[in-house]
């Protein structure tokens, strides 16, 4: 009999907010979150509170204290990046 080539994929665990923003290309999270920001806060607040962070590199969002718009954006990105991920299992040491 031949050897099975079937493999079990490793589970994809949820990312924290920093890794989620860094990986905002996953699940189209960045574009989806931008749309959510514009829908909730409007184009003017998007431009004044968030757009410069996106131009300066996505991680620049963490160089300043969060405001309502940047926090909402980062939360939405995290939600979308993690929508198909699971919580990492919790383990314990018995020694």
Overview of the molecule:
The protein has 95 residues and is mainly alpha-helical. The chain is built from four helices and no strands. Helix 2 packs antiparallel against helix 3 (43-55) and helix 2 runs antiparallel to helix 4 (68-81). The protein starts with 16 loop residues before the first helix and ends in a 14-residue tail after the last helix.
Highlighted features:
95 residues; mainly alpha; 0% strand
Per DSSP, the total helix count is 4
What class would the helix/strand composition place it in?
A: mainly alpha
Shape descriptor reads elongated
H-E order:
HHHH
Number of strands: 0
**N→C terminal distance:** 44 Å
Portion in beta strands = under 5%
Biggest β-sheet strands, sense, barrel: none
How are the SSEs ordered, and which strands pair?
Layout: H1 17-22, H2 29-41, H3 43-55, H4 68-81
């Amino acid at each position: 009999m031949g050897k099975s080539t079937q493999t079990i994929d490793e589970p994809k665990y949820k990312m924290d907010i920093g890794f989620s923003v860094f990986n905002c290309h996953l699940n189209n999270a960045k574009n989806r979150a931008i749309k959510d920001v514009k829908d909730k806060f409007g184009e003017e607040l998007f431009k004044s509170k968030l757009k410069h962070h996106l131009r300066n590199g996505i991680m620049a969002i963490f160089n300043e204290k969060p405001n309502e718009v940047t926090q909402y954006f980062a939360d939405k990105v995290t939600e979308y990046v993690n929508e198909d991920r699971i919580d990492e299992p919790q383990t314990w040491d018995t020694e």
